[in-house]
Amino acid sequence: xxxxxxxxxxxxxxxxxxxxxxxxxxxxxxxxxxxxxxxxxxxxxxxxxxxxxxxxxxxxxxxxxxxxxxxxxxxxxxxxxxxxxxxxxxxxxxxxxxxxxxxxxxxxxxxxxxxxxxxxxxxxxxxxxxxxxxxxxxxxxxxxxxxxxxxxxxxxxxxxxxxxxxxxxxxxxxxxxxxxxxxxxxxxxxxxxxxxxxxxxxxxxxxxxxxxxxxxxxxxxxxxxxxxxxxxxxxxxxxxxxxxxxxxxxxxxxxxxxxxxxxxxxxxxxxxxxxxxxxxxxxxxxxxxx
Amino acid sequence: xxxxxxxxxxxxxxxxxxxxxxxxxxxxxxxxxxxxxxxxxxxxxxxxxxxxxxxxxxxxxxxxxxxxxxxxxxxxxxxxxxxxxxxxxxxxxxxxxxxxxxxxxxxxxxxxxxxxxxxxxxxxxxxxxxxxxxxxxxxxxxxxxxxxxxxxxxxxxxxxxxxxxxxxxxxxxxxxxxxxxxxxxxxxxxxxxxxxxxxxxxxxxxxxxxxxxxxxxxxxxxxxxxxxxxxxxxxxxxxxxxxxxxxxxxxxxxxxxxxxxxxxxxxxxxxxx
Lengths: 290, 273
Known about the structure:
Radius of gyration of chain B: 23 Å
Order of helices and strands of chain A: HHHHHHHHHHHHHH
Structural class of chain A: mainly alpha
CATH class of chain B: Mainly Alpha
Low-confidence stretches of chain A: none
Oligomer: heterodimer
Helix content of chain A: over 70%
Largest sheet of chain A: none
Number of strands of chain B: 0
Largest sheet of chain B: none
Number of helices of chain B: 14
CATH topology of chain A: MetI-like fold
Largest interface: A-B, 94 and 92 residues
CATH superfamily of chain B: MetI-like
CATH class of chain A: Mainly Alpha
Radius of gyration of chain A: 24 Å
CATH superfamily of chain A: MetI-like
Distance between the termini of chain B: 32 Å
Strand content of chain A: under 5%
Number of domains of chain B: 1
Shape of chain B: globular
Number of domains of chain A: 1
Distance between the termini of chain A: 47 Å
């Protein structure tokens, strides 16, 4: 027994050292950092760091740019999240349909964007969105519709980023939905059919309720991921135009690693962490209630 | 879906969805073989008039993208090998060895899954700076050497290894290290393949941490190099598409070759919910 515990310590040591040193310690240190005025001068000489309690949080909450970034991030998550989940469910239903042929092929095709490198496909979309030469505007114009300055127009930049995110991510949720759909027993659909329920009512009264736990998982994972929006605006708009695509993580990056106001940036990071925790708790509460 | 019309409609939707999904990737591939300026001509065309490797040549010869490719490969391969070893050792201990506080410790690890990595990035950078690891491959590799999801994945698999097998090895006098290496690891091949492809893709595609820790151009990984190139070459569409192909192709090919392992890994990650 004792030998076993000693062996366990040996087996655990490398992984726990990595996680402790490079994840848990920095997270705790991040909170400590947010209570200091760590900046460029401190980077040069650590004696310049002072404890300033919650001053950073007060400064962040008072600054307009934080609320802009948080608002943009919530816009992205609240519009892009449900849209992604809806497209995922639609794709899962199509692929899962009894009459569908070549299911593995379609599943693979729909899933392909998930494995691609976000930075690379963001660059591809940057050109697809080009106001004159981009495939999207060329299609719009050929249909007689007005061209849109996707990434240059403050109203359209975030929707453009949302479209990219939906394209990139729906395949992942689709796989989760497919797994959920396959656990629904056929008898339930048969019983519904005998009761005279059509396709729509079967979906409404059998599929949707049976997918409850899947929705919770997909919702939480999507929300956590989307609230950390960063590479898409970094590559496509660098937060512009007019800060309309500046996300919370991007604000943290700019403050912390461009201007080296690391105490301030750490406060931004922890406030975002609170938002993510709240979004997770909210969805769990909502699911419990139903 | 009843009747032939329903079936037809279903397949029309499936094909339309597939075409929309593939279009950006196919266009990227096609434009990468076009000559300078060809992607912006009117009327638009989707297939290059005369396919050329000129963009790839410029990318590798003048812009030295091969160096970034090598950086990406080094970081992803070392991180993958290391995480296979570290995560499998920890997963084995959590699944098959008895020690005090085991379940509490494991629960604590799982709770880390909801903490976003960015929260620790500022202090992590300062730590790396203190250890002189900024601008080194190790700076990008070390944090990826173990992951909670990886430990979880291995543990779930190892729970299913029959106890009699381990007991038999113990009776024959094998030590824990020997049991782990010659009894358990060979059995765990499928889950190790899953973990390998998951880790490789995550590190290959990662952007934010390499962007922060690698500030010297000569150490850039592909995503960081591409993000910096697109600023200077904003209008060289064909060139940037060739760069995107070079970045995406390895992971896409790997996925197509090993998709069963990869998808089962993602699913295993989802059942914990």
